[in-house]
């Protein structure tokens, strides 16, 4: 499911501790369970994006009836500097066919600091069911070594599972994982032709932030404070935030808006082109309102500005994801604004004990 899923905590993790960068980057990777199934394992490289995309799309087609990731999504993932392909990812192929992908797995470190639980996101895809558990074992072991290298008491591991994907849910449960929350994907459909920007509430002004360092910093502060208590949120420095939300091929800072209330920055929205190539839809990547300004219609106004802008671009709709357990009544807001649910992605979580890191991180 890659980048078409919520990304509050993903993208550009803090730099790895020294233990995480030392040692060779082996090729191939040694996974005994994969070998026993008659396959070979190696480390992926960015050039594998198309082959991995085919594997992921085949799984999406089986579960959802349609692909849910683009080649851009996989390219972004395999070129993200925060994912160490030489230590944290595996590609499985038949003997003599290194470019035919039968399995792919990764452990993506979101946070790893001494004294606090490490947070690791995992993904596992396998065309052969015999590869599922060897790849799960590999990513969970890697999560434990990430925690051990950082001095964390344990690793909290998350995997995102489509609600329809009973097979993956069953595997997650067998490893002791439980559903921690669910993210709803919502869509608003747009009429053909221009849509006017909404009239803002009294005292509220919406400003385009692109090109303004002051407004961009204000948007950053609003996002960090507004999301502080949300599921999976990992705080970032300003530079890391810019990198995280600007690294994707579908990023578009011209879609950054800041709402001011009584002359003070109070809300922000960042859109992107994540769903443009495959569905001709816009995407609200971030929407946050400071706690002290909630209930004044700021979120709804920003949302309707995004709808109008997407309609002007000729988009057929706008998507966003919302946590079902959101600490604010966001889901109710989005539904009342005319959005409809189209998909649910459950986040399963489990814990892994820290383990000593190996020189190769294998």
Short description:
With 362 residues, the chain is α+β, with helices and mostly antiparallel strands.
Strand content: 25-35%
State the total count of DSSP E strands. 12
Q: Biggest β-sheet: count, sense, barrel?
A: 12 strands, mixed
Shape: globular
Q: C-alpha Rg, in Å?
A: 21 Å
Instruction: Tell me, rounded to a whole number, the average pLDDT.
Output: 90
Low-confidence stretches: 1-26
Run of helices and strands: HEHHHEEEHEHEEHHEEHEHEHE
Report strand order across the widest sheet.
Answer: 1-2-3-4-5-12-6-11-10-9-8-7
Q: Helix/strand-derived class?
A: alpha+beta
What is the count of helical runs? Answer: 11
Relative helix content: 25-40%
First and last CA, distance: 24 Å
List keywords for this structure.
single chain; 362 residues; twelve-stranded mixed β-sheet; globular; disordered N terminus
List the helices and strands and how they pair.
Blueprint: H1 32-36, E1 40-42, H2 49-64, H3 71-79, H4 85-88, E2 89-93, E3 103-111, E4 118-126, H5 132-150, E5 155-162, H6 166-174, E6 178-189, E7 204-208, H7 213-226, H8 238-246, E8 251-261, E9 264-272, H9 276-279, E10 281-289, H10 298-312, E11 317-323, H11 330-336, E12 340-352
Parallel strand pairs: 4-5, 10-11
Antiparallel strand pairs: 1-2, 2-3, 3-4, 5-12, 6-11, 6-12, 7-8, 8-9, 9-10
């Amino acid at each position: 499911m890659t980048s078409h899923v919520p990304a509050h905590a993903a993208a550009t993790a803090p730099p790895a501790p020294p233990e995480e960068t030392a040692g060779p980057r082996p090729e191939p990777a040694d996974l005994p369970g994969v070998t026993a199934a008659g396959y070979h394992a190696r480390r992926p490289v960015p050039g594998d994006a198309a082959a991995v995309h085919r594997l992921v799309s085949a799984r999406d087609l089986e579960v959802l009836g349609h692909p849910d990731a683009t080649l851009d999504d996989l390219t972004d993932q395999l070129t993200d500097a925060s994912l160490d392909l030489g230590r944290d990812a595996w590609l499985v192929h038949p003997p003599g066919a290194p470019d035919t992908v039968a399995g792919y797995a990764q452990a993506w470190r979101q946070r790893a600091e001494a004294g606090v639980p490490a947070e690791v996101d995992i993904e596992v895809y396998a065309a052969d069911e015999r590869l599922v558990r060897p790849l799960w074992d590999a990513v969970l072991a890697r999560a434990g070594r990430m925690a051990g290298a950082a001095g964390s008491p344990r690793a909290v591991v998350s995997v995102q599972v489509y609600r329809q994907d009973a097979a993956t849910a069953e595997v997650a449960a067998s490893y002791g994982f439980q559903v921690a929350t669910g993210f709803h994907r919502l869509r608003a459909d747009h009429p053909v032709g221009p849509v006017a920007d909404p009239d803002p509430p009294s005292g509220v002004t919406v400003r385009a932030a692109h090109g303004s360092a002051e407004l961009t910093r204000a948007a950053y502060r609003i996002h960090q404070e507004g999301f502080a208590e949300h599921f999976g949120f990992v705080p970032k420095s300003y530079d890391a935030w810019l990198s995280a939300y600007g690294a994707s091929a579908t990023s578009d800072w011209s879609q950054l808006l800041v709402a001011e209330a009584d002359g003070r920055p109070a809300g922000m929205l960042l859109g992107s082109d994540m769903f443009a190539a495959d569905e001709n839809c816009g995407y609200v990547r971030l929407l946050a309102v400071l706690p002290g300004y909630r209930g004044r219609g700021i979120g709804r106004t920003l949302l309707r500005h995004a709808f109008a802008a997407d309609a002007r671009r000729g988009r057929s709709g706008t998507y966003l994801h919302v946590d079902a357990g959101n600490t604010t009544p966001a889901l109710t807001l989005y539904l009342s604004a005319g959005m409809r649910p189209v998909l649910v992605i459950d986040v399963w979580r489990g814990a892994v004990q820290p383990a000593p890191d190996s020189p190769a991180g294998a």
